[in-house]
Structures are given as structure tokens and as C-alpha cells.
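Obj.: predict assembly geometry.
Materials: sequence records (below).
Method: joint structure prediction, all chains together.
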Amino acid sequence: GDSVTQMEGPVTLSEEAFLTINCTYTATGYPSLFWYVQYPGEGLQLLLKATKADDKGSNKGFEATYRKETTSFHLEKGSVQVSDSAVYFCALNLYGNKLVFGAGTILRVKS
Amino acid sequence: DTAVSQTPKYLVTQMGNDKSIKCEQNLGHDTMYWYKQDSKKFLKIMFSYNNKELIINETVPNRFSPKSPDKAHLNLHINSLELGDSAVYFCASSQVGGTDTEAFFGQGTRLTVV
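Observations (raw C-alpha cells):
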């Protein structure tokens, strides 16, 4: 079935470090891909998305590129801040009515 | 204005009890969902409703019964609560459309069964 695999956390970085969170997917068709972020005590909110191969989603300094050849959608940020500490979820949507999530990656940024 | 609101935010109850979690969205969306997040943060869809009709039921025990009185509300009733039901439950909504449709989530209900 359709699935998403993310790198395990927690990921601990110092402020201004470069961030990469790996995400790969398995799908029978051509899904849209998403990164959602969950700040402590809150629900999930959309961070960025990409709907077709080679699309790049970006928001708040975060970027991810839809790579069909490697079935990947890795999240990157050039310089993280303490306020970026959260849980990050990679997800796919293949049929329009169901998001399939990865296991989530906890990010901790230290000052 | 809260887009997707759930109540209660916290729920502590004893095994065997019956409880309900309410969800309302004011976004005008026609699809609503319940997701369960376990202690390791893993999120799994439980149910999806479109215009008050059940469209996804992901092998959830029949102790869980969603009810959608109208397309702005999707409540979750749980009978005979078990320890393993302890989790954070998230309600979400989206507009039906293509695969790029964004889902909006509530703040979650932390259920603790003792």
C-alpha cells in the first residue's frame, strides 16, 4: 500500500545549523506531497506542498523538492531557529480524500 | 476565529466508560476526518466523512462510532474505553478536490484512560 518513511528523530541542532529531514514514499500513482509541522501542544499545520515531479514547495525558509526518480521529498532549511523546534510530518495524498503520514521527526534546536 | 475546534482538549476517564469528542469546522469544507496520534507521534486516519456520509473507515474497532449531524460537525463516540485508546485524537477538514487539497487540523484531544 501507499506509505511514507521519514528519518527517525529526535534531530538536535544548534541555532543557525543546516537542516535536512529525509522523506521517501511508496505510492501506486502520482501523489501530492506535503510537509506538516506540529508545534508543542498544537494541531498540525501545513508547512509546504508539491503536486508534481520537480515542483519545489517553500515556506518560512523551508524547502522541499518532489523527486519522482528517487521517490523523495526531503525537507531542508539553511539556518534553523529555536522557534523551529517542533515535530515535522511528511505526507502524501493520492486519492484526494486521505493523507498518509510518515512517523514524524522531532526537531530540537538549541540556542 | 478558530477554523477547526475540538472539545474537550483533555479527557481523563476510567476503563469501561463511554465518552464523546466533538468537532466543528467553520471553513465551509465538505470533508471531515478523525486521526489518532499515538505516544510515538505516529498519525493514522480513522474515519473520513464527506457531506455527512462515511467514506473511509480504517479498520477501527466498532467501539468507535463517528457521527456527522451536518457537514460542519463530526463527533467521535467511544464505548467501553480501553487503556490502549489513550492517545491524542485530531479532527481535520478539507474541501473535496484533487490530491493537492490542504487539510486543516484541530488542536487535538488528549484522551487518557486509567
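Conclusions so far: Chain A has a mean pLDDT of 94.
To do: check interface contacts against the pulldown list.
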